[in-house]
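Hi Q.,

Before the meeting this afternoon, I wanted you to have the magnesium ion prediction in hand. No need to reply - just skim if you have a minute. The sequence and ligand are here:
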Amino acid sequence: MNTLEKSDNFERMSTNLQTPIDYLKGVGPNRAELLRSELGIHTYQDLINLFPNRYLDRTKYYKIKDLQRNSAEIQIVGKITGFKEVAQKRGKRLVGTFEDDTGRMELVWFRGQKWIRDSIKINTPYVIFGKINWFNGVFSLPHPDLELLNEHEQNLRSSMQAIYPSTEKLSNKGITNRVMTKIMQSLFIETKGRFEETLSENLISELKLLSKSEALFNIHFPKNQELLARSEFRLKFEELFYIQLQLILKNLIHKSKIKGFPFESVGKYFNTFYNDHLPFDLTNAQKRVLKEIRKDLGSNAQMNRLLQGDVGSGKTIVAFMSMIMALDNGFQACLMAPTEILSVQHYQGLHELCNKLNISISLLTGSSTTLERRKIHESLENGNLQILIGTHALLEDKVKFKNLGLAIIDEQHRFGVAQRSKLWKKNTSPPHILVMTATPIPRTLAMSVYGDLDISIIDELPPGRQAIKTVHRYDKNRLKVLRFIRDEIDKGRQVYIVYPLIQESEKLDYKDLMDGYESIVREFPMPTYQISIVHGKMKPADKDYEMQRFVKGETQIMVATTVIEVGVNVPNASVMIIESAERFGLSQLHQLRGRVGRGAEQSYCILMTGHKLSQDSKVRLETMTRTSDGFEIAEVDLRLRGPGDIMGTQQSGILNLKIANIIKDKDILQSARFYAKRILNADPSLALNENKIILYTYRQLSKYKNIWNYIS
Ligand code: ADP
Ligand code: MG
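Predicted structure with the ligand bound:
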């Protein structure tokens, strides 16, 4: 890793792209300030990386008579035949009459009126460009881009005009798209359009990429469609390549720096369990994942692995078998879950398995008594206790292990990064870490967000699971739904009814919940029926009490908010009713549905909504009724919401993508990752001459973008 950690030892010649934007011809201090504040453009480099949102066909002109009220940006050839001033509330506006051979419209200026009047030539052909409005029965175009027709024709190097990202303030202050284009042109003039290459010759020739200079030129001033497409490819590839390079390097550095505890042997516990006590045959996916974990644990590096698997895919047994690998090598193991209920369930399940193997296991939660705690602390430190299950309580300083070898976190998305790193400190050297999540994120996104973790995926459910029947019902069909609930309860089943609780409108939601609860109580009166209610405003102890009543089957209906979303297992519950389902996100709906379908009986999920549904809601409901594949649902979710809202993406560089699109450019991402891996495998410190450019660019990027500054 030496070359990577050394500071720059060679500088390169070329126009310095770190020059402040103020110095560029046509910019000046005012515009520079606006470019900085509105678009974050500080330097030449930032400007060159301001990629167009889209391209407009500049050979296409509208006629005034063909304008539609919803035409977006349009371009028309015509003449200004006169001006008038119109008084308005504050000041006045300047209105120009603009005509072509089919009709007339208005051009409007609220500022810069004198300058416009002085510089515009009346009755001379102009090309105007902008977004039209329909106002007082005429079309008007406020602050149009104007260009004399003959100049326009001379300037027309390309039929495709780049349209840059803009803001209201920018266009109000006169930085129109035409101005942006001019500024971009002057950047190309000043730099002579020559830019440092940023990818190695090998990559360029193998992938037949455009050079950096060609790509930059054609992204801003495309000569034709084909060159534009190739420019986009090259720039997207480059962007994703360096992100992947960063993530893979992080992972490599981690592995080389942090020594793990090698679990050399597969021992007695594992073999006995595998041969004599395994309650079912493992699925192929479980076997594969166990092998991946086994390989990590056997190596010298510390494992940092993410295990993704849909609800019910059987992550727990994988966790258990990994823990006994640690035990076989003389280490302790722990499993942390986000709620008390979940830890209790894990404890109960694993306790049974441990008994058969003579393994000592304890449970530590917020409700553990002082006496229990003391015993646990003691036996952890002297090594008598082999497995500890629990909540956040595990993280407390008092909890000290004799020799913790493996720490597992269940439902990782409920914990923060800080908590993960606390577990690291529970031994002199960090224990192996396995984090598990049932909120699948699409592979491509995982690759970018969690690229520094190794990823295992269980993509197969245990055999014999009955698919959950999911339907969408409108509120007006509520009576039928109630009858259905009653029938299911009569058969001895239990039912969840979930209400949305979203913070901004908490009061309203809370009222909905209570109203809902009361109507359910009326519909299902005591003592025939018993109903539990659980919501976030209750004290944890009360919540647990109510939850336990439902778990034990003392109540038949659980009215709740999304607090029940995570991991609880009540196999006898076979119906999940989700009220106002249109208000939930897809991954939440999927998690909630995962609460049923855990027993032998046919299970149902009923999504209740009102009649008015947005387009997105319709897609969500349709997706839920169509599929129960968590990964497929995650893909749709990603498409609907973009990566910004997906769990865990907030801290990652993925949101700052300049040109690539994580959803549309999957294939490019895959290829970027492939090449980054290949290069680093052959040359982990990028020391070879052929990778010099990559190393240099990589360092530059780390220097100027703080998201990439993890390398010291
Ligand atoms: P999750 O991945 O959601 O944590 P669990 O580990 O709780 O899922 O497993 C869900 C249920 O499936 C449990 O009752 C578990 O015993 C059962 N199970 C897990 N693996 C298998 C398998 N290979 N064959 C049959 N049942 C299994
Ligand atoms: Mg689980």
